[in-house]
Amino acid sequence: MRTPSPRLSWVSSGLFWRTFFLLATLIAISMAAWVASFRVIEQTPRANQIAAQVISVVTITRAALTHSAPDLRRELLFDLASNEGVRIYPLEDTDEVEPPINNSMMQAIQEHIRAGLGAETRFARNVNDVAGFWVSFAISDDEYWLMLDRDRIEGTSGIQWASWGAVTLLLSLLGALFISGLINQPLARLATAAKAVANGRHITPLPEKGPAEIRETNRSFNHMVEDLERVESDRALVLAGISHDLRTPLARMQLEVELAGLPDDARKGMQSDLEQMDAIIGQFLDYAKPTDNKTFEHIDLSGLLRQGLHEIERLSDVKITASIADDITIAGNPIEIKRVLNNLVENARRYGKKDPALPVQLELRCQADGDKVMLEFGDHGNGVPDEEITRLLRPFTRMDQARGQANGAGLGLAIVDRIIKRHGGRLLLSNRDSGGLIIRIALPPPKSK
Questions:
Q1: CATH class of 1-198
Q2: Can you name the residues that pair with 124 across neighbouring β-strands?
Q3: Which helix (H) or strand (E) holds 320?
Q4: Which CATH number fits domain 296-443: 3.40.50.10490, 3.30.479.30, 3.30.450.40, 3.30.565.10?
Q5: DSSP line for 378-414
Q6: Is 131 helix (H, G, I), strand (E, B) or coil?
Q7: What is the pLDDT of residues 26-71, one digit of tens each?
Q8: Would you tell me how many other CB atoms lie within 10 Å of the CB of residue 174?
């Protein structure tokens, strides 16, 4: 069976988003600091450059107008307007003037221009509702306005900076998204494989490539999985030997007891002890036996439960009511699912009676609930103290004080929990409001082929 694909689980993981937001925050702060630093550092040289250009234009224009013939000035002004974007207007006291934007850049430009053209130089953003960069100059006793296109002075606008910053930030965030995935995907793959191993599923080896740390981690994990599979294989072999070596003498002892001519009470007592020993050995083997998920198949759970229900109804000390929905299917091992039902019934027979002289009252329900199959099994016994419920699923645990004295190894519910986990499900225990213990089992539906 192949390792389950992590799909986009690494995208939804907390570590992925933590890495992404950390990178995004660092990128945003770095960009803001860079833009602020650039504009501060660039301001003085740019102000000097713009002021020098304006001074040059004003000086050249004033010289051209001063030394040109009066009949050629109109043509000169036309050439300046059409070719250089420079317009000359007479300065009138009635002009409606809007001052320039009051920022550090514009103030620096004005200071440099006044230093070159004179302190009486005036500036405007709009003159008579005509937008531009307006600079005053004088020829003899006459004053004029020289207007330049505003773009030549103001340079890059805030909207342009914002647009460039947004595009750069978007590209940076996409890069952060890619880097976060690149960092977290190997971890997500490792977590998915570890979960599969914990559930007893076979996996394909993790790729031993990439950065040295990832290669070493995946190599160590692959070696661990190989060791675990070897241990599982050895354990299966040992368990087979234990089953044969222990049960053969027990069978011989049972035969000897039958032929020994002992009194009935002594013979029945010895037979009961031998049967109990055989049952305990069987519990040990069931708990330790590995499950091969390759043997899983589509199971008609409804039919399997109804078949088990007929067998349970034959027991004289059990009264059971059942509600089993039709056409409920799961993927699993039918023998182990039947063992779950048998263990639950046996556990209830031992511990679920309020009066040992009366039959145990059981309830069984099975139905589909969204994307999972729910199985509920309850009794009407004395229940379990709430603080002790979690202990019931531990191996070799019996709540004798709470649920009555009984013989056993304390593996019944531990075996059930182990089987359910092998099938990708969950088991929950709780006390019933009306008395007794209720066991809820959630199993996944079979995957489509």
A1: alpha beta
A2: 134
A3: strand 318-324
A4: 3.30.565.10
A5: EE-S----GGGGGGGGSTT---HHHH----S-S-HHH
A6: strand
A7: 877 887 777 777 666 666 777 888 888 888 888 888 888 787 776 6
A8: 10
Residue whose entry in the numeric block shows the structure tokens 């004798």: 400
| 379 bridge partner residues | 362
pTM, to two decimals: 0.48
Domain chopping of the chain, boundaries: 1-198, 201-290, 296-443
Give pLDDT tens digits for 395-423: 656 555 444 444 545 567 888 888 888 88
Q: Please check whether residue 364 is in contact with residue 322, taking contact to mean a CB–CB distance below 8 angstroms.
A: yes
Q: Do domains 1-198 and 201-290 have the same CATH topology?
A: no
pLDDT tens for 143-160 read 888 888 877 666 555 566
- Burial per residue of 306-327, b for 16 or more beta-carbon CB atoms within 10 angstroms, e otherwise: eebbeebeeeeebebebebeee
Across 264-291, average pLDDT: 72
**Amino acid 303: pLDDT:** 92
Transcribe 110-161 into DSSP letters.
HHHHHHHH-TT--EEEEETTEEEEEEEEEETTEEEEEEE-HHHHH-S-HHHH
Task: Please name the helix (run of DSSP H) or strand (run of DSSP E) that holds residue 377, with its range, or none.
Answer: strand 372-379
Are 43 and 200 within 8 A, CB to CB? no
Q: Which two tokens stand for residue 321?
A: 């009511």
Query: Chain-wide mean pLDDT for the chain?
Result: 79
Most confident of 57-66, 170-179, 237-246, 343-352: 343-352
Per-position DSSP letters for 161-217, written without gaps between them: HHHHHHHHHHHHHHHHHHHHHHHHHHHHHHHHHHHHHHTT---PPPP--SSHHHHHH
**Distance between CA 350 and CA 369 in Å, rounded?**
30
Percent of the chain having pLDDT more than 90? 7
**Among the CATH numbers 3.40.50.2300, 1.20.120.1200, 1.10.287.130, 2.40.160.20, which is that of 201-290?**
1.10.287.130
